[in-house]
Amino acid sequence: MLTNAVVTAWLIASAAAAGLKVAKIGSTPDGTTRPIRGWNSWGLQAGGYLSDFKQQTVQPICDRMATDLAGNYQLCGLDSGWSVGDHGDDNGRILYDSSRFDLPNFARHLHGQNQLLGVYVVPGAFIKDYDNFGRCYLKYDHPSTQAWFDSNAKQFADWGVDYIKLDFMTPGSPEPGTNLRSDSSGEVIGWQKAIKKTGKKITLSISWKLDRSRQYFDIWRANADSMRVDQDIQTYKRTPFVSWGNIIRTLQNYREWINAAISLYDTIGTHPNLDTMYVANSQDLTGLTYDQRKTVFIHWIGTSAELNLGDDLTKPDAQGVALLKDKDALSAADFTGNYPMQPRNPGSGGSDWKSQNAWISGPSPSGEFIAVLANYDTSGTATVSASLSDLGVSGSYSCFDIFAKTSLSTSSGLSATLKGGQSVMYRCTRGSSGGTTTTTPTKPPTSSIRNWCSAGDGGEASHIENKFHSS
């Protein structure tokens, strides 16, 4: 009988022979491996759908998430507009806008139904606390700067905050006409140090389309639990919320992110963030067909991304709820939480972007892996086939179709005929030998502010403040 050590060694050797380096997340700075799941308000704020942004309009959305989605999605994330937009308290600390939210009260409500509270911040302090202008750059080497981070993090913890989204980080966050500080990486370091001092688990996510060079990737992975791979996914229209073109752009950027991460690290140490996903609402709101919504869900799961919804959860449709509650899909997400998928081109095993493509998550030491086959070209039907060699594995496997609820055994590969926008996800374990055969449906087990910040120019101030007051 082969020991686990021998089997593991054989799997590693066979994967190496096939040119596959397994992508692994490991533990992130907040001490967990599974990315957060929930909802973020910007998906509805961006185009004005949620124009009256306050506790009375947000709370019903998160309440419906708690009931309709059976507690599987916990984060209730407040984006731009929850805080006072032009000044802090007497010590320059961030204040919640009491005309919109009673933040401690809201946190208690969420925690009472096993949910989490998220808030949004941007780099720098308020220049109005300095010279009545806008925002200012922090001097990261000044001791009072860290004291500012510390006091804000403690206040957040006291309010009941569980998650912080830190936006407009650089290098990254490109946008025409924007004048951002060229390097604000000290911001994420300061926030993470402050979070550790609170003694509370607070997840830190940074945005957007961040620099992937080794110099900065080292900083992101050491201090952030997730990092955005692309710009905002929304259309910035009231409806539809998103477009298929934006989905494809995001997945193309994820491909670049995972290829960079694999080339740099054996253990990545942070999750990718693909922005909010649109799965719960019908096509008239999302702009996506049911097949496209399923493809979004499959890919957000496969990439080990945060599963944060952008939908109006007071108006879900039955198909969307069924997708989001699917136990096999959520179990797959637990697996991919540590094994983000990477592209494996059909016919070559390459890592390029293809209109019809294959992806693999894992394999784990036991040989288990998840494979995704996808047809991104909406112009027609295509058969997408990937051999086990293409995927970078070998042997015999029993593979379970996560959504069709059917199983097959294979020692050759996987194939699916897919309409445009469709995809399929298989969970494969080492199993029977022989060719590819379909079997009966079965499921697997489931100080003074003047001393430590300096005035930036009006470009940065106006751009960031516009988002702060966009709601």
TrEMBL record:
<feature type="region of interest" description="Disordered">
    <location>
        <begin position="335"/>
        <end position="354"/>
    </location>
</feature>
<protein>
    <recommendedName>
        <fullName>alpha-galactosidase</fullName>
        <ecNumber>3.2.1.22</ecNumber>
    </recommendedName>
</protein>
<keyword id="KW-0326">Glycosidase</keyword>
<dbReference type="GO" id="GO:0005975">
    <property type="term" value="P:carbohydrate metabolic process"/>
</dbReference>
<dbReference type="InterPro" id="IPR013785">
    <property type="entry name" value="Aldolase_TIM"/>
</dbReference>
<feature type="domain" description="Alpha galactosidase C-terminal">
    <location>
        <begin position="361"/>
        <end position="427"/>
    </location>
</feature>
<dbReference type="GO" id="GO:0004557">
    <property type="term" value="F:alpha-galactosidase activity"/>
</dbReference>
<dbReference type="Pfam" id="PF16499">
    <property type="entry name" value="Melibiase_2"/>
</dbReference>
<comment type="similarity">
    <text>Belongs to the glycosyl hydrolase 27 family.</text>
</comment>
<keyword id="KW-0732">Signal</keyword>
<dbReference type="InterPro" id="IPR013780">
    <property type="entry name" value="Glyco_hydro_b"/>
</dbReference>
<feature type="compositionally biased region" description="Low complexity">
    <location>
        <begin position="429"/>
        <end position="448"/>
    </location>
</feature>
<feature type="region of interest" description="Disordered">
    <location>
        <begin position="429"/>
        <end position="449"/>
    </location>
</feature>
<dbReference type="InterPro" id="IPR017853">
    <property type="entry name" value="GH"/>
</dbReference>
<dbReference type="InterPro" id="IPR041233">
    <property type="entry name" value="Melibiase_C"/>
</dbReference>
<dbReference type="Pfam" id="PF17801">
    <property type="entry name" value="Melibiase_C"/>
</dbReference>
<dbReference type="InterPro" id="IPR002241">
    <property type="entry name" value="Glyco_hydro_27"/>
</dbReference>
<keyword id="KW-0378">Hydrolase</keyword>
<feature type="signal peptide">
    <location>
        <begin position="1"/>
        <end position="17"/>
    </location>
</feature>
